[in-house]
Specification:
heterodimer; A: mainly alpha; two-stranded antiparallel ribbon; 13 helices; 5% strand; B: mainly alpha; Four Helix Bundle (Hemerythrin (Met), subunit A); 72% helix; flat
C-alpha cells in the first residue's frame, strides 16, 4: 500500500517535472529557432559573469538563457492594475496553467514493466477513459484566459479574453471530432491501449501507426491543437499590433511567466497527443517485446532496454512535434479573425463530422466482415 | 466511494452552490457554479459513472458555462447593489424559507436512512454500457431528442438572423449615405 502510494507520487512528480522542463527548454528553443529562421544569431547575450568567455569555453548560451529568462520574470514587479478584480487577476494564470499540467496525468510515456513482482505502468493515472479526461481538461482550460483578461479591467485585455474564449471553444469541437475518429478506429478510450494497438507492422515493414489509418484526423488535431495553444498563426487573442498583448496585457512578473509557461505546456500537450494517437506513442518501428525484428533480421534485447528505448522514442517524437510547431509559428503570418472562424466552423467542423461518419462506416463494415 | 471523499465533494458542491446565490458579482457567481459542476462531475466519477462524470465536465463546464460567460459579457452585467426597502416582502420571504427548512429538517429526522454500498453490474458506467443503453434500449427516445434539439437550433437561427436585403432595397440608394 505504502509502496504503491510512493510509486504513484514518484511517477506524478517525474512526469510533471519532465513537462515543465521541456516547456522551459522550448522557451530557449523558440528564441534560437526564430533567430535561425530570421537569419539572426539569437539569444546569446546572457552569460553568467562572463563565465564562458573568461574560461576560454564556448558560449554557455543555453544554460545561461534558460536560467536568465525565469529569473528575470520572477524578480520583476508583480503589478495589479487599479480597479482590477484582485482575486480573479491573481487566480487567472494558475487557472490557465493547472488544467494543462493535470492533462499529462493520463499520458503513457512508456510500456508497463515488471519489477520486484509488481507491474509498474509508466502513466501517472491509469484511467480507462483517458481520451475523455484529456477533452475535459482542455475544456476547463478556457477559464484562466477568459477570467484573467476580464479581471484586468483593461479593454484590450477584455477583447483578447473574448477572442481567446471564442477561438478555444470553436477549435475544441474540431479537436473533439478528431479524437472521436481515433476512438472509433481503435475502439477504446484508454490511451495506453491505443498505443498498444499501434505496435506491429503491416505488409511486413510498415508500422501500424494511426497516421496511416487517420491522416485527416491527424491534420485536424494538429491544426486545432495549434489553435488551442493560441500561437501564430492563431494568435489573434494576443495580436500585439492590435491589442498590445491581449489577455495578458496587465500581467507582469511571475504571473506572466505562468501564462507563457501555459503556452509552452500546451505546445507539449499537442505534441504528446499527436504522438500518442498517430505516431505510436512509445512504440518504435520493428521493436517488439524481445527486440528488433524486420524481415529475417533479428536483434534481441533485454526487456529493460526495450522499455527504456520506448520512453526515449516517445520523448524524441514529442520534441520533434514541438520543433514543428515552433517552425510553423515563425513561418506563417497571422490569420484575420474571419479567416480563423471560417477555418474552424466551415472547414474543420464539417470535415471532422464527415471523417467521423466515414470512419464509423468503415469500422462497421470491417468488423461486420470480420464477423 | 470512501465516505471521506463523499463528504469532501458534497461540502465543496454545497458551499460553492451557496456562493452562486450569495455573491453579488455575476462573474464570481459563474466561477462558483463552475466549481459546483466540477464537484458534481467528480461525484459521478467516484460513483463509477465515469463516462457521465467526464461528459458533465466537458459539456457543462467546457461549453455551457462559457456560453453563460459570453451572456454576462454581452449584457455587461455588473455587481448589483442590494435593494433597500420592501421590508414586508423580506419579512414574509424569510418566514417562508424558515418554514421550508423546518419542514425539510422534520422529514429528514423522521426518515430512516440506511446507506450502504449497492453492488453494480460489471462494466457499469463505462462508455460501452452507456452506448448499449442509449443506442439499443432508448434509441428512439435518443434520436427524437436529437431531432428536437436540431429543430430548436434551426429555430433560434431563423429568429435571430437579420432579414436578407431584398433586391429592390439593395438596388435603391441608401438614405444619408455619402455620395
Amino acid at each position: 500500500m505504502a509502496i504503491d502510494l510512493l510509486i504513484g507520487a514518484v511517477k506524478a512528480i517525474v512526469i510533471l517535472l519532465l513537462v515543465l522542463s521541456l516547456s522551459a527548454v522550448l522557451l530557449w528553443f523558440e528564441r534560437k529557432g526564430s533567430a535561425l529562421i530570421q537569419d539572426r544569431v539569437g539569444a546569446n547575450r546572457a552569460a553568467i559573469f562572463g563565465f564562458g568567455k573568461r574560461m576560454g569555453l564556448p558560449n554557455l548560451g543555453i544554460v545561461a538563457t534558460l536560467m536568465a529568462d525565469p529569473l528575470k520574470l520572477f524578480t520583476k514587479e508583480d503589478f495589479v492594475p487599479e480597479g482590477a478584480d484582485k482575486f480573479l487577476h491573481a487566480l487567472g494564470p494558475f487557472l490557465a496553467l493547472f488544467p494543462v499540467l493535470v492533462a499529462f496525468a493520463v499520458v503513457p510515456i512508456g510500456d508497463a514493466f515488471q519489477i520486484g513482482g509488481r507491474t509498474v505502468q509508466l502513466q501517472a493515472a491509469s484511467i480507462n477513459a483517458g481520451a475523455l479526461y484529456i477533452l475535459a481538461t482542455i475544456g476547463v482550460g478556457v477559464y484562466g484566459v477568459a477570467l484573467g483578461g476580464w479581471a484586468s479591467n483593461n479593454r484590450w485585455a477584455l477583447l483578447g479574453a473574448v477572442r481567446a474564449t471564442a477561438q478555444m471553444i470553436s477549435y475544441e469541437i474540431a479537436m473533439g471530432l478528431a479524437i472521436i475518429s481515433i476512438v472509433i478506429t481503435f475502439g477504446t478510450l484508454d490511451l495506453q491501449d491505443i498505443v498498444r494497438q499501434q505496435g506491429g507492422v503491416w505488409f511486413g515493414w510498415l508500422p501500424r501507426w494511426g497516421i496511416f489509418l487517420q491522416p485527416v484526423a491527424f491534420l485536424m488535431l494538429l491544426t486545432a491543437g495549434m489553435a488551442e495553444s493560441k500561437r501564430v498563426p492563431f494568435d489573434l487573442p494576443e495580436g500585439e499590433s492590435e491589442l498590445i498583448a491581449g489577455y495578458f496585457t496587465e500581467y507582469s512578473g511571475g504571473k506572466q511567466a505562468c501564462f507563457m509557461l501555459t503556452d509552452f505546456a500546451e505546445v507539449v500537450l499537442v505534441s504528446v497527443l499527436v504522438t500518442l494517437f498517430f505516431f505510436g506513442g512509445w512504440q518504435v518501428p520493428w521493436l517488439y517485446r524481445d527486440g528488433f525484428h524486420l524481415g529475417t533480421h533479428h536483434l534481441l534485447l533485454p526487456r529493460a532496454a526495450v522499455v527504456i528505448i520506448g520512453v526515449i522514442a516517445f520523448w524524441i517524437k514529442v520534441v520533434m512535434f514541438c520543433w514543428f510547431q515552433i517552425l510553423v509559428r515563425w513561418t506563417l503570418p497571422r490569420f484575420r479573425y474571419d479567416q480563423l472562424m471560417r477555418l474552424g466552423w466551415k472547414g474543420l467542423v464539417p470535415l471532422g463530422l464527415l471523417n467521423v461518419l466515414v470512419t464509423a462506416f468503415v469500422v462497421v463494415v470491417a468488423t461486420g466482415a470480420a464477423r | 466511494m470512501p465516505v471521506e471523499l463523499f463528504i469532501f465533494l458534497a461540502t465543496v458542491s454545497i458551499v460553492s452552490s451557496l456562493g452562486v446565490v450569495a455573491q453579488k458579482n455575476p462573474i464570481h457567481c459563474l466561477l462558483a457554479l463552475i466549481l459546483t459542476l466540477i464537484a458534481i462531475g467528480a461525484l459521478f466519477i467516484a460513483l463509477d459513472a465515469v463516462t457521465v462524470g467526464f461528459l458533465q465536465i466537458i459539456v457543462y463546464v467546457g461549453a455551457i458555462m462559457v456560453l453563460f460567460l459570453f451572456v454576462i459579457w454581452l449584457l455587461n452585467l455588473q455587481a448589483e447593489p442590494v435593494p433597500i426597502g420592501h421590508l414586508g416582502l423580506k419579512f414574509f420571504a424569510t418566514i417562508a424559507v424558515a418554514a421550508m427548512a423546518a419542514e425539510l429538517f422534520v422529514f429528514l429526522a423522521k426518515t430512516k436512512i440506511t446507506l450502504g454500498a449497492i453492488p453494480v453490474v460489471a462494466g457499469y458506467g463505462s462508455i460501452d454500457s452507456l452506448a448499449q443503453t442509449l443506442f439499443g434500449q432508448y434509441l428512439m427516445a435518443f434520436e427524437t431528442t436529437s431531432i428536437l434539439l436540431l429543430v430548436a437550433v434551426i429555430g433560434a437561427v431563423a429568429v435571430a438572423r437579420r432579414a436578407l436585403p431584398t433586391r429592390a432595397s439593395a438596388a435603391a440608394p441608401k438614405q444619408g449615405a455619402a455620395p
